[in-house]
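1st attempt posting a full record on here, be nice pls
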Amino acid sequence: MITSLLAADQPSDAPFEQIASKFLGLVWALSGWVALAALLCGAAVFAYQKWTMQNSAGLGALGGVLALAGCGAMAANLINWALAGPTGEDTAGSDPSAPVTDAGPAAAPDFSWIWPVLGVAAAGGAMWAMIRAMRARSAARATRAAQLERWNQGVTVLNQVAAAIVEAETDPGTVLVRPLMLDLTDEVTADIHATYAKARALCPARVPDDDALITSFVQAAHAARTAFNRADVKARSKAAKQNKPLR
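the predicted structure (as tokens):
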């Protein structure tokens, strides 16, 4: 009896423990949302790079750090939830010899497990979106690099044709070696300037994004070179038949 009275006079730590437990639960919940936000931000960074076609090392590093931080925090939340149990209550210290009292009405079902599940699903979705964005960005960079390479080849061919036309029109020896190159009434010679003008019209200052426009320009540049070579062969052949010295 005396022991019971003394125990009743001692202050209980139950309210403090309940407050601490709720506070820790709130902290873990907030950290879970922060982890999810970090994952989503990382995915957003990679998606932004894909949309803008920018290969920035700084943005890539930022996205990777956010993704790793989000994964780490999410893993910590899952470990804490697994150790604490579905309800987060420690039942190991219960006293089996304590008298059984009426527990009152049955407690409502505990659905706290749904938040970690939703967090894992959201994290998985964010990671999937991030991986897709990275793959799409890599594929877009490879496609653009191939387009630029083809475009530069077409520009090189067109510049060679332009230099050859200038040489044929300004070289005094053209009158003796290939005078037909100066005769714009000849169909083959006129075709040089027509195909060159067409290729030049398809060559804007900025490389287009449409692959069809790039293909049209490259084909036009090669057509101009073919026309020049055909006219050059015809002019030299005609000059040789007229017994004029060849260079």
